[in-house]
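Cross-posting from the chemistry board since nobody answered there.

I work mostly on the small-molecule side, so proteins are not my area. We synthesized zinc ion and want a rough idea of how it might sit in this target. Sequence and SMILES are below. Is it possible to get a predicted 3D structure of the two together?
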Amino acid sequence: MMSSPAITEILASLVAFDTTSRNSNLDLIAWVEDYLASHGIASERIYDATGTKANLWATIGPAEQAGYILSGHTDVVPVDGQEWTDDPFALVLRDGRAYGRGACDMKGFLAACLSRVPAMKAAALARPIHLAFSYDEEVGCVGVRGIVEKLAKAEVKPLGCFVGEPTSMNVVIGHKGKRSLKVRVRGKGCHSSLAPQGVNAVEWGARLVAHIRAIADRFAVSGARDALYDVPYTTAHVGIFAGGTALNIVPDESEMVFEIRAIGADDPDAVVAEIEAYARRELEPAMQAVDPQSGFDFDVFAGFPGLDTAPGDEVVTLAKRLAGRNEHGKVAYGTEAGLFQAVAGVPSVVIGPGSIGEAHKPDEYIEIAQLEACGAFVDRLIAHCTEVH
Ligand SMILES: [Zn+2]
């Protein structure tokens, strides 16, 4: 096999680009393009609406065949307010670890994949390997939608997608689906001595908050169960509830932000619909009897589909074979895998180097042994793709 550039060398180059989600990722993308071009591989940018960020898509091997996707995001979470021992954007190798922002989540995976590009190029691939590098994952799996929408229309659909979020190279077949909502409560203000003539937006909002909690309790007590999750049922949670300005004023507005995280057996949109129906049916009539303009505005502002790949699916069996493992699990955090599966119809698994416990923190690091294990996984994928089926 052709010798591969050191993963840590590539990782150092990638970490040096400050691709915090608020920044452009184009310098990193250009670096990857140049690297791929130096190995004779063309790549395609899929831009966002502003033109300041892009996904990168590259195919190594016969594009007309169905192959496999290696998918990762190029953005990282901010270092703001974190105490780092060293410069977070200069990779430090110490005690078998590589330290730097994104080393674990998830430039380590990108580096492991890129280090094997010469080997991919040298191999007689019967099936292609695609690299799908996205932007804006950390702010709600935004960027990858450009890739999956393209894939949804593709004539040849890939056989599988490996999303390299940190799983310590465990085979992950599921994560919950999420919906994030903002609700504005429109009340009617007045002096508090005339309270019954107003519509108290805090009090009516609180009734909705209590109902969301009641639904969460119902799932906890009698909802469907998936034992592979730490919290084995669907959850709902209100994270922000704000309203009111003074004690002697009936508040005319309040606002809440809440989320649903659903296991595969539950439809998060059905939960959203149930909450909205309660507001329309049980709360709004009484509010509007006082002021017809009052009521609730619902806004689903973010979310991603869940991942629920069947344990017997071919992509799961292949991932286990390539990783040398027999077990599979599910994770609490969301990934782009749900979008590949739900929107593009590509069977997906999450498997990548490093532990999620090491991500997003000051002094983020990845074990170099994990990077090597990921490189070996890609080596076996290359070998698999040279076999004619
Ligand atoms: Zn990530």
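Reply from a structural biologist on the board:
Welcome over. Reading the output above for you: The first strand starts at residue 43 and ends at 47. The mean pLDDT is 96. Happy to explain the token format if needed.
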